[in-house]
Design brief:
Blueprint: H1 26-38, E1 42-45, E2 51-58, E3 61-68, E4 73-74, E5 82-85, H2 110-115, E6 123-126, E7 131-133, H3 137-140, E8 146-153, E9 164-169, E10 191-194, E11 200-206, E12 209-216, E13 231-232, E14 235-236, E15 249-251, E16 256-262, E17 265-266, E18 269-276, E19 287-294, E20 297-305, E21 311-317, E22 320-327, H4 331-336, E23 341-347, E24 352-358, E25 363-371, E26 384-390, E27 402-405, E28 411-416, E29 419-427, E30 434-440, E31 443-444, E32 451-453, E33 456-465, H5 480-489, H6 493-506, H7 511-515, H8 524-536, H9 540-551, H10 573-591, H11 597-600, H12 613-620, H13 626-632, H14 638-650, H15 657-661, H16 678-689
Parallel strand pairs: 8-16, 18-24, 25-33
Antiparallel strand pairs: 1-2, 2-3, 3-4, 5-6, 7-16, 8-11, 9-10, 9-12, 12-14, 12-15, 13-17, 18-21, 19-20, 19-22, 22-23, 25-28, 26-27, 26-29, 29-32, 30-31, 30-33
Amino acid sequence: MCSHQPTGCSGRPGPRSTHLCPGTGPETVSKIDKMMNAMSISLHRNSSSRSKVGLVQLDGRSRSFALNVCAAVVFCVGADMAVVAGARRASEYGTVDDSRPLSKTLLLTQPVLQSANFVTDRIISTSGGAGRTADRATATSPAGRGSIVGVVSNERHEPVARATVQAFAALATAPQPHGRQNMPPLMRASGSASTDGEGRFRLSGLEPGEYLVAAEPGSLLSGGWSKQTAIYAATFYPSAVDGHQAVPVTVSARVETTVLIELVRVRGVRVSGSVVNPSGGPTGGMSVRLFHRFGGFGSASNVAVVSPTGTFEIVGVPPGWYRLSIEPRSPESKDARSEYAEKVIEVQDRDLDDLSLVFSRGATITGRVVAEAGASVSTGIGVLRVSAEPTPDQFSAMSSFIAATVGENGSFRMSGPAGRYQFRVRADRPPFLVAKRINIDGLEGSLISGVELVDGEHEVVLYIAPPELPEPTAEKALSSEALVEQFKSEKTFWRQITTAKKIVERHDPRVLLALADWLNREDRHVRGNVAFIFAGFGDARGLQVIADILTDRSDRPEGQGMAMAPGDGRYHVASQIAADRYYAAHLLGDLRNPAAVPILIPLLQDKEVNDIVPWALGEIGDNRAVGPLLAALDDANPSIRVLAIYALETLDAKDALPRLTALLNDHEKSRFGNQVSVADAARAAIAKLR
């Protein structure tokens, strides 16, 4: 009898004296038998465990594998191949023949099999140790793309929750950051997800090719560290800290590839040093912060407090690159600070002591925004803001960007720590503007690679112009029939709606007959685009279909829009419903049909879609919306108040002036775009309405 016999295991010997669990049918036995014969596998009993252990010859080299006698699972482990014959009932999947130097550990836990949707009578063969199946990829990735699924575990083979998993194109070469040849290149992730409570993750929508897959546990820097706390490094598949030792994972179209990442446990080191303020100001009590970035994700944590003597100590820091900064502890003093102490450090496998940080005044920018030569820039552009974001190689949190509102004369002023910055200009509403050129201290700079700001005063001139519009995707020379075929063949909804608008512009009602059966399409984004065409021709079915999408909360398969819950990369029907309803409300604004006003007004109270409703009402231009929009100025959400102001301005609602004047002391900021305050939005609207 086997030592790991699960409930219901018959214990009867199968082929080659292998014990099989119930549900492992004759076809599976035959497949395993044929597979093992084809690979010239010889089995023998390992005296140190109740497992079958054997060798497989691949390209003349021996590779070890282990066969759990109760799992009906075969592992052939090596750089060349891994084969798994599916089973789902055994409690342990695979053991290791420690007596052989070529042996490698491959442990598939129950969550792995569940996440990969393994079932009995399935055999999965792969290259590079990653399993593949085509059964589910068609439902989770767009056509022509594949997925990587798997589990992240620790050295005890326990699942790790809330780990960040990213896939990086294996052949991508990133340039070294400007001026920092000793720092690692920027790695841009092709996909990312977070593990759930059982350590499972899914990376969907990946282009076919080879990827390096890495997992990083949640940060321990924010507190709770002790000498007993396990610390893990960012780990590449299968279990490597160094990316050069990672095994690439091959992704194929419409195929789901399965991997298991075992995090590497490391020693947390001590980082200590001192802070000096040349101006004589106190440093004791200030916060010590570390910002760490891996791939497309970064996090900043308060990790220590500067002592009264100006020293600090951080313990339990995992290896990696960090930006170390000293900041005032109170938000008020942080906003007003004009001195900065920061340093980029690399933490390796030994303590990093005697660091010295010196406060400096940072960079102060006096600038102005002017129209690019030949560009037509409207004066009624609302609130215009200039932002300077640290370039990715600066290892800075996105929250460390500096910004300023442009005055009526086009001037602005801001300050921040020295470093390399990318400048941008944003208007809070149409007509939108972009920065075309930058001049710093009399010299031409780069908006793409950024400009270097050293300590001291700088003069910046930003030249702005309207953005260049993309070429239309639908050719004017196409017939109505050809446009319908183009509409049907387009798979991306936002490109499809462009063609839909071209169809409506033709005023050829014959197209409706060819599209009538599309009003019932499963994908609500596509259904809405078809309904847009019908409504554009005045066919009542169109407006009704869009209204029905707004009230439809029935179950549905994955469609377009944001159907994934943040972080876990998995489909959630509630997210799909929200995306479908949001897009339907947007379509009503695109239609500009006054009949949609009664449909939209109640949605001002619907938190799932109300951030698009004011825009839609403004686009329609019906004064029946003025009263409800005035009521929305009392909404608890500052974003809704700002959006309502924009809509009232679009509607030229001069009756709103008294209410807008009352908002000039409302300094809460919206949570989108330029994060404009309610007061700034009201001030710009008042200037235009008067």
